[in-house]
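Self-study notes.
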Amino acid sequence: MALTAVNAVVIGAGAGGGIVAKQLAEAGLSVVLLERGKWYSPFDCRKDDLRNQRTSVLGNGFGPDDERNPRVTVDLVGRERILGASRPGYQNNAACVGGGTLSYGAMAWRYMEKDFRMRSTYGHVPGSTLADWPISYQDLEPYYEKAEWEIGVSGDVSPDPFHAPRRKPLPMPPLPPNREYEILHPAAKRLGLHPFDIPMLRNSIPYNGRPACMRCRWCVGFACEVDAKCGTHNTVIPKALATKNCELRTECVVQEIRTNDHGRATGVAYFDPDNHLQQQDADLVVVSCGAIESARLLLNSKSRLFPTGLGNRHDWVGRNLQGHTYTGAFGLMPEPIFDDLGPGAGIAICDYNHGNPGLAGGAMLANEFIRLPYQFVSMVPAGVPRWGKAHKDFMRTAYQRSIAIQGPTQEMPVFDSRVQADPVVKDFWGIPVARLSGGRHPHTIEISTAMAAKAEAWLREAGAIQTWQRLSGPGLSAGQHQAGTCRMGDDPATSVVNRHCQVHEIPNLFVIDASVHVSNGGFNPVLTIMAIAYYASDHLVRRWKGGGLA
């Protein structure tokens, strides 16, 4: 039986797609929201250190599964590997309702004004595709505010003199400081820095009908059992469904976006939970699958008019993949400081995001989330054995004295860091898988190395008696902060979507997620994803009501 056509089909129920579905449904459009994963509760995935942290993959416990969803990676010397989703190098995002917002650390950063004007600020960086965004911070400011108040953000950025102008404070106060905060705050002040409370998509007080954070150690990579972590699964998606204009379909894998002979999207073909191929017709199609899967879907959606995939006439789909190079430093304090107060991360500085001589950008630096013992094994300094008595002795004496500072480097986008549809390997449903290749720009390594030194200096000032840096290699950067593969721009020859996230050559096809980021800032990108989703949805609704998308 043919499915009833709808006004809009949104692919991906994560940070971007959940907001888009809610905005369109509240505007009166009929919406189908497709999600390849399940709608998990915290009780589906127990708090087991080994279950969710058996690799470095954040959100690994929430899919996708290894057997059905391989990827191909190509290293810098051309060696290919086929990887399952739980393997390092896969560059996974959680596959579930809420996407990464179900299990993320939930830092809620606004980008700075200069982050949207990187080319104007720093000029051309040879070997990179560094460019200005076609929109400004001022364009997004009201939508940052909407995300902070509707989704829910706690913290206090007022002591940070570097933050961009804002009209309203955050809706919730910060969580009380933990021991690391109390040690790092005066040390930062002694160095002439400007420490402040990290903005978090996490309730510090009861908000929007959900309770405050209970300060447990299992936060990053885990779902919140008291529902205090704020994501699209417990905010905007329930609102979308409450309108009765939105239908959520889970465990649905989209094969392709279909187009007609006039070059318009007509809907999608997808496999339902029983692996039957279905066709959902729609007036509008919105792709919100994350930078790797969004690019893969566009590339796999080929037709006579679009033989290289949708939006790919100038070979920009899948290019400029970025995911944040994380570097910093670890330290050991003279006495135990572990107080078991989650989420752990609480204090940050933005003194080094810009204004570093000789560097095109920098990074926010913050203390880290609670490091579970299994994670700490991969963070020990050089020379410490990874097994045996010496390893156990170090863990016993060092774990509760450890402290970490790190941050996401402002990366230089690279044209050849990319996503392709693999010509040979297919997933369980016969769809060509993502093929990932490329590496970091050398200047990204320079910036991240400088940031590691800044982090180490902060730890030493705080009294660490032993410090060691975490540095980056030259390989591909993607991970849970993946961005850039469908970049936004005014020129169709050098971008995939316009300033409103509309694919240049297909008027009723939109990409609304971090794929559109021109650069990825020196911050966790999720609040910017949310702000862009509100911003693009507003434009889409206005165009729809004005008849401009008919």
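Second protein, same conventions, sequence then structure:
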Amino acid sequence: MTHTEIRKRFIEFFEKHNHQNIGSANLVAKNDPTLLLVNSGMAPIKPYFTGEEKPPHPRLTNIQKCVRTEDIECVGDPHHHTFFEMFGSWSIGDYGKKMAVELAWELLTSQEGFNLEPDKLYATVFAGDDYIPADTETISHWKSIGIPDEHILKLPASENLWVSGPTGPCGPCTEVLYDRGVKYSCGIECNPNCECGRFYEIWNAGVFMQYNRKSETEFEELPFLSVDTGAGLERFAAVLQSKESNYETDLFSPLITEITSTLNIDSLTTAQTRSVRIVADHLRAAFFLIGDGVVPSNKREGYILRRLIRRAITHQIFLKIKLEDLYERLHQSITNIYGSFYPEIKDQDIIAVLQNEHENFLKTLKKGLGVLEASLATIVGQGKGKAAVFPGEIAFDIEATYGVPLETQKEIAENHGIIIDKESYQAAYKKHQDLSRKGAEGKFGKVQEYANEEIAPLHTATHLMHQALTEVLGSQVKQAGQSLVPERLRFDFTFDRKLDPKEIRKVEKIVNQQIQKGLSVTKVETTFHEAVKQGAIALFRDKYKEVDQVTMYKINNFSKELCGGPHVANTSELGYFKIIKEESVGKGIRRIKATLEKK
């Protein structure tokens, strides 16, 4: 059963049972201070369960894009990933535990569903703890559909109490395990509590959200009971395609083939297999993050993206391949797999962003790896043997100075039989944080002084220049980053060659013409679809689709762009626009620096 058929059967099953398909939200979490990136199917719709927002329908379903990095060290084993797709179905104050159990059983065992053998299925339930009682009701429902006692496992809160974060909706859950057979068994004593891989969790049949978690020990009843279900598409594909690993399914095999085809060897070692999987997984996640508007940076979701790209690059070095020669082919494979479900993944700018980050990282990485190898050679030369320890403060300095991630240093050090001292690394990291915080506090007043008044003219000028670049160079121009300080603006954009002097002068002329016209700058509250209909530029278009209302700035009829401001009221306030530099900052990315001079 291909992943396309698996998707189709899942959505059609719940639509048949009166669930509305809401589609996938953007990977960047909205209005949720506890999350940077969406990490579960339920994360984008939390407000429905707390009663803060009204859902479009009491029964919902979708396949949600997700990113998690807390298990990044496990990526490369048969079933851990950073990016994955989550099947989900929800009842918001509608049906309860009984129907959730019945739907799960029908989905998994019926001909219209996934046709799994009933005697290979096991159910887990919450055994209760000091704060929440055991879920005896769900046990009775599993028994009523024919699951025997020995196939019902009562597990503690660490296994079967679902929480969405430090606070928020939570409750007992019930999961379904699939017995993959004795060939996956760890031995004669193997049982459903084993983690050997034989008993495979394929469906969280119900998180029964009865409570709001106020603290680690304080829970209160929610105004109504809701049901949240979920399952990883990758796991389902492994079971239904009879594959030992998720990486052997049709969601990954084209990527794995592209990477291994460059190795020119008949079989891979265990270490090589792990590295190939890490490269495939991390780049898949990077493609989707960039497609959803994230760009590499040292902050927030941009840092997560940067970490994934750089980790993939360091494993490329171990494999002795050139990823820069593979990006286009891997992107085409990703497009072939996902393009009909997520059109944003087709964007060719994704390749340019990746290549730009790749080139920037390699410049410092080579120096950093040289420093690391020299430091490790010194320790080896001292004859300290397999128990040698690498000072954590040196590891942190190499990471901070050259960008070599700690996990990369750890892997290289272990190849020399050396371990990195984590305690001294953490101490150096904390010291760096403290110094950075003090520095930020010292600069805070200055930032606040020019946050609006001094930046607003440059921000408006950026909108004018963006439109002018589009008119002069074509629609392939898209913003790839910007920085505004009182002295100048910096604007990065996608374009594949250097601008000639005539083009630069033409852009300047167009911008200054709009300034001289004294055009009004208007803030308009509207919907995403109406803004796009009017021709507005939406840099991170998929972020806005999930929002009821967006802010659009119109500069008369010359420029329309979704933006949060600040801006001036009229272009006559800007002065004279002058481009002072145009340069490359990576393959397919150009940078313009410009100023506003007094009239």
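Instructor comment on the second fold: The first strand starts at residue 20 and ends at 21.
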